[in-house]
């Protein structure tokens, strides 16, 4: 299978499985974003891609450490790996950037004082890059004064921690960062799904208008005295009318799909369902 085809199929898996699969007319949403042949192939191998999705979202969270102190990095890496995290390290900002693009970390721990490029400058570069501005960055440094904390946060760091910390405090901040990342991800996915649904409804509305007009003309032709005398033509027009009715019924059913709403479950997960109480 070509690499580009695999990529499209995996992207479709990530897009589809967060949705409630009982949502009617979901195939309309697929078709808006993905090629029909991709959707067809995906549905034929649905079980495999469900497994892929489960594996993807149960992988350990990845943490990237960017610090020029090799001994410190080694000890921190051992501590974080003991907690079940996948840890990647880099001893300078340049290799740190390369590792960030390679491993797509969930959390980045950045030192302030490094050769060539300071942690502050590195954070600014990350936040200025569209592809990386959503990275959750914790600055870990010996500079603990109020002005330093303000400078680090203003540069774009999401959290700030002095190097003389208890490991439990760092772990708590990492968990907090992961919760924020998870929330941002859900908001982004729900926004994307809502946009796709709105696009689909807009398309259905635009398609429905000319079909309704065609149905009206079909009815006028049947009532025309000259046409009424031609039995074959009448039968043909009735067949066209039946097809137009089917198309209009499909559009009406699709427009009845309610907006998506997220509801928290007791275990902290979120389910997406149709809210029948919301007026559209």
Overall spatial form = rod-shaped
Count every helix, treating DSSP H or I runs of 4 or more residues as helices.
11
Q: Beta-sheet strand percentage?
A: 5-15%
Tell me the domain tally.
3
Write down how many β-strands occur, each being a DSSP E stretch of 2 or more residues: 7
- The percent range for helix content is 55-70%
Poorly predicted runs of 5 or more residues: 17-32, 51-58, 258-280
Question: What is the residue-mean pLDDT, rounded to a whole number?
Answer: 75
The chain-level structural class is alpha/beta
Note the run of SSEs as H and E.
HHHHEHEHEHEHEHHHEE
What is the CA–CA distance across the termini? 43 Å
User: How big is the Rg?
Assistant: 28 Å
CATH superfamily of the largest domain: Response regulator
Q: Strand order of the main beta sheet, please?
A: 2-1-3-4-5
Examine the coordinates and then state which fold CATH places here, giving the name of the CATH topology of the largest domain: Rossmann fold
Explained architecture:
The chain has three domains: about 5-55, no CATH class; about 60-165, Response regulator (Rossmann fold, 3-Layer(aba) Sandwich); about 180-275. Helix content is about 60%, strand content about 10%. It has eleven helices and seven strands. It has helices at about 5-15, 25-35, 35-45, 45-55, 70-80, 95-105, 120-130, 145-155, 165-225, 225-230, 230-255, and strands at about 60-65, 85-90, 105-110, 135-140, 160, 260-265, 270-275. The strands form two sheets. A five-stranded parallel beta sheet has the order 2-1-3-4-5, sandwiched between helices. Strands 6-7 form a two-stranded antiparallel sheet. Strand 6 and strand 7 (about 270-275) form a beta hairpin. Mean pLDDT is about 75; it is low at about 15-30, about 50-60 and about 260-280.
